[in-house]
């Protein structure tokens, strides 16, 4: 199974359609992400970028087209959904840490109850990743006692503890105070340098320039432009992209 | 040094009293009148309850009636009826032990160290078995005592604890069903909850005790006591389900999404993420519901059970002690107070404990 998986793309999206009632949120999206590739998705609010990555681990159900993750198709088969969710980590805009558990427990619970790892092993893994996001000393605190930047780094560690093959980031720095954005981006840059497959919805264009293999611009539920960062930032063809970039980079 | 240590607090308190109660001549007058009334009432009460009261049974009811104060002799003479109801006199030690078993079981399961599936099951299993064997007998050389003879405090505790024990899990099930994605499930559950809530408890108890036997085959009926407990648990669960649902609505949607993204199954999400947070939100209302249910156990008297309040009626209602009903009710009120007050304090402890992570 793993051998066939490792050959194909990490994520393949074909003709994806998504409606909220009569609102057409995603229109015929096509996207293929290779293993180890880093994708940055940007676009104005309401353009469908969050909806698209939330479809990849079935937090949103798509209405048309095909999504294949690591060789497994996302459909109504609950077994498939569970299998994909185990291998796809996600980091949210508002962190969504579990407030009734300590930082360490936040990182241990999924490996223990989903992957059935023994407690000692889960704890070792959790401490290793907390070390990696540079907050090992906060392990016994509760999320409410940490700053936003620290919480988001715990959220990254929590997702990594499942040892996923793909990481999804849904505007991970949008809810943070400016002085905390750097500490979160640092962790993401290091993760990228280690070869993790990453799909990031973000407005951090500096981050996109530094780590992305490809930048995708979405507007009104469509992928409007798709290019490597240098090309994207210097010579984009589309008018909407140019307008968006001038707004984001303008000041 | 002295000034720093002694001076500030003492004048502060006196100043404060002056400012609050004696700021103007009129205010001072009102304060003094209120004080006089309070002293008078407290004195009268103490005089009645302690100084002029009769505590022993030696003089019998007659000595009591002659005295100016309270007649506590009625408690000394009749406490067994109040606590144990119609339970056979020779066997009442069993009823007392059963009460102890229920209280110990409840206290144990309130201690966080016992909050694992196996331990709580062990505590409840042992407690329930002990209670049942002690009360009913028929084994181990204990004479048989049917449910119709159970009464007093032992019965009140039994009805309350079993109502909560059955009603609470049922409430969680109802709350989960009510938030189901399938409209026919959530609507039907909503209809059941609202239906039960719009009926008076008395009519539900009456239906389960008296009407249900006509509708059910013999083997399904069970004893009247258990049908009544089932009815009261159903009533409890309808209210508690809405409390739990309210608690669930306070948990942000992102919590469940995060759990889903980590690959947790439905039951893992419910058990590990949603319910612990929902129950924390719902705690104050839940304690309220427990308190109400404890006091509502007294309604079973209408279907013929002698719980503690009815046993109290029997204790003074037999002729010679007929005049001493105030004392009997004061005694019963004290028992209710001890249980309900401990329940409230335990709720406060839980709230403090659970707010550790919350900022």
UniProtKB/TrEMBL annotation, chain A:
Keyword Cell cycle: no
Endpoints of the signal sequence: none
One Pfam family hit: ABC_tran
ABC transporter domain mapped to chain residues: 11-245
Residues spanning the membrane: none
GO MF, any single term: ATP binding
Key words, A-Z: ATP-binding, Nucleotide-binding, Transport
SMART domains, per database record: AAA
PANTHER family: AMINO ACID IMPORT ATP-BINDING PROTEIN, PHOSPHONATES IMPORT ATP-BINDING PROTEIN PHNC
Similarity comment: Belongs to the ABC transporter superfamily.
The protein, known as: Amino-acid transporter subunit ATP-binding component of ABC superfamily
Automatic annotation (TrEMBL), chain B:
One function term, GO molecular function aspect: transmembrane transporter activity
Keyword set, alphabetical order: Cell membrane, Membrane, Transmembrane, Transmembrane helix, Transport
Gene Ontology cellular component list: ATP-binding cassette (ABC) transporter complex
Subcellular compartments: Cell inner membrane; Cell membrane
Family: Belongs to the binding-protein-dependent transport system permease family. HisMQ subfamily.
One of the Pfam families matching this protein, by short name: BPD_transp_1
Protein name: Amino-acid transporter subunit membrane component of ABC superfamily
Domain ABC transmembrane type-1 residue range list: 153-344
Transmembrane segments: 21-43, 93-115, 122-144, 150-177, 198-219, 328-349
GO biological process, one term: amino acid transport
Membrane topology annotation: Multi-pass membrane protein
Keyword Transferase: no
Superkingdom field: Bacteria
